[in-house]
Write a structure and sequence with these properties.
By secondary structure, this protein is mainly alpha-helical. It is about 80% helix and about 0% strand. The chain has 5 helices and no strands. It is globular, with a radius of gyration of 20 Å. The termini are far apart.
Length: about 160
């Protein structure tokens, strides 16, 4: 079952990258906030249907849980808006790896300190190694995309000068 959950998480991550690339394009044409609004509107509609048809009954409702737990819903808005802006400027790969770097760093802090009611999983050298490797990957992906963008602009400038 653990392997299935890991595979599903990888698929979820792939879907976030596809969503970011699509939303970046949409946001550049219709606006960042309209793109974010569409994402949340369609998401709310689809989730509402999933709740109606598939959600089993639970002992508690959203009104019964500790109110701080409802704040999790607020964190999706900055994520979507930031990604719509970032993908337009730095590309889907750099934006996605930067998001994963932020997710990994914060999730390790949450694990280590047991924040937000989660079980404590101590920080280790192998976890530090993972953060360092991902930071290095972010550097190389950014550097590579930056040099490709710069070399693509040079012929355009030369072509404009020739006219």
């Amino acid at each position: 079952m653990t392997i299935i959950m890991i595979i599903l998480a990888v698929i979820g991550g792939a879907m976030l990258s596809i969503q970011a690339a699509i939303n970046g394009q949409l946001g550049s044409k219709v606006g960042v906030f309209k793109s974010a609004f569409l994402t949340f509107s369609v998401g709310a509609l689809v989730t509402g249907l999933l709740i109606f048809f598939f959600e089993p009954k639970h002992a508690l409702t959203l009104m019964d849980v500790p109110k701080w737990q409802l704040l999790g819903a607020m964190f999706g808005v900055p994520y979507i808006v930031i990604m719509v802006l970032a993908v337009q400027r730095i590309g889907a790969a750099v934006a996605t790896v930067a998001v994963i770097f932020g997710q990994l760093t914060m999730s390790m802090l949450i694990d280590n300190f047991g924040w937000l009611g989660n079980a404590s999983i101590p920080f280790s050298m192998s976890r530090l190694g993972a953060i360092v490797c991902l930071g290095i990957a972010l550097f190389f992906i950014y550097s590579s995309s930056k040099s490709k963008t710069a070399s693509a602009k040079i012929p355009m400038r030369q072509e404009a000068a020739n006219k």
